[in-house]
Amino acid sequence: MTATMLADRSLLRLSGDDVRGFLQGLISADMAGPLPVWAGLLTPQGKALYDFIVWPDGDALLLDCEASAAEGLKRRLSIYRLRRAITIEADARTVHWSRAPGHGMPDPRLAALGYRWLAPASEPATGWLAHRLSLGITEGVAELGQDKTLWLECNARELNGVSFTKGCYVGQENTARMHHRSKVNRRLVVAPRAEPGDRTRATYPELGLMIEHRRVEALGDAIIPEWLAAAL
Question: Which Gene3D superfamilies match (predicted)?
Answer without folding.
Answer: Probable tRNA modification gtpase trme, domain 1 (3.30.1360.120)
